[in-house]
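Our collaborator T.R. sent over the components below with a one-line note: 'Predict the complex.' Nothing else. No constraints on interfaces, no templates requested, no preferences about which chain binds where. So this is a plain run: every listed entity goes in together, and whatever single assembly comes back becomes the starting point for the next discussion.
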Amino acid sequence: MSSQQNGRRPYLPPFRRDWWLQLRFYRLYMLREATVLPLLFFVGWLIYGLYSLGQGPMQWQHWLEFMAKPWVFVLNLLTLAASLFHAKTFFELFPRVMPLAPPGLMIAGQWLGTVVVAIGLIVLLGGYV
Amino acid sequence: MTQTIVIARYNPEQDEKPHHEAYQVQSDDNTSVLDALQQVQQQDPGLSFRWSCRMAICGSCGVMVNGVPKLGCQTFLRDYPAGLVITPLSNFAVEKDLIVNMEPFLEHLSAIKPWLINTAEGTQPHVQTPKQLAKYQQFANCINCGLCYSACPQFGLNPEFRGPAALALAHRYNLDSRDQGKAQRMPELNAKNGVWTCTFVGFCSEVCPKKVDPAAAINQGKVESAKDMIVSVLKPSGAR
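Returned assembly:
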């Protein structure tokens, strides 16, 4: 029996394009997903840096000057903030996907790992050793 | 005191689409959304909504309160001093007023075979240790209220997505030491509309009245799905 015959006329509201603007929870989710956008710029500049390194000292110097431009610096700061926010959300979700230890311990462990790796890279690449 | 609530009304025999109507209800600290709806029904017997147990067990009285999926019996007017708008559960077709067609959800649910599959013969009870029970117990608390489907934008975008409750229950039975049906359920989890459609928005777990955490279950299901894929690649063909 069709819906028409039995008096049914179900109404399915259209799914709104701006669904993610409706609740704070959804906005934060979209912000988490959007953290990839500044990262895209950063990766582009990193590849440009590698290319410049291969081209010789002149081009390398040019790249260093480019990276020191205020707008590039600000965008890199934004990338750092976005990555830290993404890391926070990721670290909090991870214990729910792989519950290997108490969540608090896993979150703390991931942050500790991040700090150790970051300091290690700064020491190693910053010419401190 | 008197409080105003707004309710979405839809009469399929008269209305083109739902509209909002305001009602006055008497409320105190103990007045739930379900109580308020029953008061409105006294004024207007035509108002349709589902309810049964009044204690967050049956899962019948799911509605949207100010755009958030809630059980009517577990939501109180005292928490909405600025007023509340009650609409039918999102992402489902409205049949009348606050009643939606839950059929798509039930189809997804049965597709993942949410029951114990065990070929062992005999009438002996299945023995299970507390440790084995603890593995899946949280995911067994689902009351099939469907709030998680209304919270899930991926289900809203793609109604073919098996969805939070169904995939959480698939994971629940896969984790059960008494069950042998994992091989039958994995194709559903691995499929296009299985676990990989989930992007871990996570609102399903936020609105779940039983703290099942379906988002965690689905993403644990992704780990299982990935393992299943690796095993199937490594196994010689025809060995499955």
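Summary for T.R.: Chain B touches chain A through 30 residues (CB under 8 Å).
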